[in-house]
Design goal:
The chain has 1 helix and 59 strands. By secondary structure, it is mainly β.
Length: 668
């Protein structure tokens, strides 16, 4: 596999351990004249009108003055640079710094960083000095206790563990270790991932635009990697006078005593008195689920009202299979009638989840919530930020920040209908950022709109698993790391079939199309997968932009074992822009068909269409047919990306074409 210097480690995209690739960086004394504000590591002009509108400004560490070492760019899984926003960050030795310039007034910061794990796992802590205007202002405590997963799914926190599943095929030896003689030696730590965490800090006063914020690494860690800084002007705390105030029912805002029972009492009183519940500024300890139904709960704002809890082992597993509980606000189970008219807003939920146990209900928000709203929450360190088990309907999720999850940020699971997820910001999930999973009962009539999803360390930015009449629109998805895409539509995981319309429009996906570890092929920025059944709904992809694709922009695929059983038919692509592919514009590895109209491509690294069909190589051509509806401009390495000679079903099958890293995307 040939790779240009822009992605130096793709050629070793399997196990790279904790290596720190060296990039150019911006050394001390060579800072830009003005702050470089980005969105998902991009010039904001490239993503105008897409993704979440947020009240903070993002600055990448590699773009500012520092005396550390830039790492990256790198698209490889299991590398610090590969998991960084924009695939580049800055490594600091003790005493080294990065220095940002405020682009606008701010009184709060958020740092995305990584420090080493403990030798036996479990993480360490280390201080980070924060200086504003040349004066040391605060000390931020960094931790790796919520980072570092290793090994095979569902992962472990132990870097020294042997293979969790030695009877699984692994790409590192291209073998099943337990069935191989001699047994291969597998390097440890095996497949390290999920390196980063985030930490917020109120600065105590407002600083004007142009002030310098310097972050200096301490000797508490052998190295500190700074990925980015978000700066924000946080308003005054929200106050609700006419409300059921949790303090009146015994809640402890210092966090020393558990406040769960006080929350229950405040909620019960609020329902009787027809009041909302108010949680004033403070940190409240809650170590179990708070059950909510027909109630409004609001805090003073997510920077001021923090509900924080430990993960607690249960004496025996609960009926749903959970072996732990933890902080979370849950509607009643759908089997018990669910909850309705629940409104949660203006507070933070911070969990204590450090391992992935799929049966555990240790999510920030969960249960079944119909006719409800969730707005302005900050969720961190839970398993899934929000996991909804329907059937349920008419839920609106808006303006939330969900970071540092062990699994998904949000999942609409089982019969969720007429619900909207809009203007949410998501970063550093351990599985799909946003998902609709139609297991057992179809999701229908839902919309994911104008959300930003960055750096899922496994799986996809946005995933739709079956369902009817759903929409994915106006989103910004960046930097999926491993075995996933920016946008994914999959007939898999036992999902109900796709039916009606699946509308995918006006999304931007950047630095996506990752390596599928088991197949050892590159995916697409958008990826359709027929595994459990054929996909034959009306699927329209309109107005999407696929930028700086690691491999393909568009991929349609089935699995080898079912390649002659299932197909993907009639997907329509219109008014799509592709700026940069490591390989092709379209890769087809399935039977079926797709049409293309006004799909413009540039900086294409391989033949425009890599058409393998079902790999039967019939003399009549591929089992996958492409229809040219006109206006498809731009070229690949062999001429126009959608050339007449490729139509309708010419076999142009190159299983693993060389990767040619494109230049950085620019305005069209």
């Amino acid at each position: 596999m040939s790779v240009t210097a822009r992605w130096p480690a793709l050629a070793t995209a399997c196990v790279v351990g904790l290596g720190l690739a060296v990039g150019a960086g911006v050394p001390a004394g060579a800072a830009p004249a003005a702050p470089v504000v980005t969105r998902a590591g991009l010039d904001p002009a490239l993503v105008a009108g897409r993704g979440a509108t947020v009240d903070f400004a993002e600055q990448e560490a590699e773009n500012v003055r520092h005396n550390g070492t830039a790492i990256g760019p790198d698209r490889a899984a299991y590398s610090l640079a590969g998991e960084a926003s924009g695939r580049t960050a800055v490594r600091l030795a003790p005493g080294q710094y990065v220095e940002f310039t405020l682009p606008s007034p701010a009184n709060a910061i958020n740092v995305r960083y990584s420090i080493p794990d403990a030798p036996a796992g479990g993480g360490i802590t280390a201080p980070l000095d924060v200086a504003v205007g040349g004066r040391s202002t605060r000390t931020m405590t960094l931790t790796s206790q919520y980072a570092y997963l290793y090994n095979q799914y569902p992962f472990t926190n132990d870097p020294n563990a042997g293979l969790l599943h030695p009877d699984w095929w692994i790409t590192e030896c291209a073998c099943v270790p337990a069935a191989t003689t001699p047994v291969p030696e597998i390097a440890k730590p095996f497949r390290p991932m999920h390196f980063y965490d985030e930490q917020r800090l109120l600065l105590g006063r407002t600083y004007r635009a142009g002030e310098k914020i310097r972050l200096t690494a301490s000797s508490g860690a052998a190295w500190t990697v700074i990925d980015l800084l978000d700066t924000q002007l946080v308003g005054l705390p929200h106050v609700a006078v006419r409300a059921s105030n949790v303090l009146l029912f015994g809640a402890d805002p210092t966090g020393r005593r558990d406040s769960a029972a006080a929350f229950d009492r405040a909620i019960a009183f609020a329902r009787k008195a027809r009041l909302k519940v108010y949680i004033p500024p403070g940190t409240y300890q809650v170590n179990r689920h708070i059950i909510v139904d027909d109630v409004t709960i609001e805090g003073a704002g997510s920077w001021y009202t923090i509900i924080k809890g430990r993960e607690v082992a249960l004496a025996e597993p609960s009926p749903d299979g959970s072996v732990h509980t933890g902080v979370g606000f849950y509607g009643r189970a759908a089997a018990d009638g669910g909850s309705r008219n629940v409104h949660l807003r203006g507070f933070a939920i911070e969990g204590d989840v450090r391992e992935r146990i799929d049966t555990d209900q240790v999510n920030g928000v969960g249960g079944a919530l119909s006719d409800s709203t969730i707005d302005g929450l900050y969720l961190r360190h839970t398993k899934v930020g929000m996991w909804f088990d329907g059937p349920m309907r008419n839920l609106t999720v808006t303006n939330n920040v969900i970071v540092d999850q062990i699994a998904d940020a949000l999942n609409l699971h089982i019969g969720v209908t007429r619900s909207v997820v809009r203007n949410n910001f998501i970063r550093n999930t351990g599985d799909d950022g946003l998902a609709m999973w139609s297991e057992k009962t179809a999701n229908a009539g839902n919309t994911f709109d104008h959300n930003t999803v960055q750096t899922p360390t496994l799986a996809n930015g946005i995933a739709i698993y079956g369902g009817t009449d759903n929409t994915v629109s106006g989103n910004l998805v960046a930097d999926p790391i491993r075995e996933g895409s920016g946008i994914h539509a999959g007939s898999r995981f036992g999902a109900e079939p796709f039916a009606g319309d699946l509308i995918i429009r006006n999304n931007t996906v950047v630095r996506a199309g990752t390596l599928e570890l088991n197949w050892r092929i590159g995916l697409g920025a958008i990826w359709f997968y027929a595994l459990d059944r054929s996909i034959s709904a009306n699927i329209e992809v309109t107005g999407d932009h696929y930028l700086d694709n690691t491999y393909n922009a568009i991929m349609l695929v089935s699995d080898w074992g079912v390649k002659d059983l299932y197909s993907i038919d009639g997907v329509k692509f219109r008014d799509v822009r592709v700026d940069g592919t490591g390989t092709s514009v379209v890769s087809a590895r399935v039977a079926g068909s797709a049409s293309f109209e006004n799909v413009d491509a540039r900086n294409v690294g391989a033949v425009g269409v890599n058409n393998c069909g079902s790999f039967n190589f019939k003399p009549t051509g591929s089992e996958f047919a492409l229809t040219d509806l006109g206006g498809n401009d731009g070229g690949g390495t062999t001429g126009p990306w959608l050339a007449a000679w490729e139509l309708p079903n010419t076999i142009t099958c190159d299983d693993r074409p060389p990767v040619v890293a494109p230049p950085a995307p620019t305005t069209w």
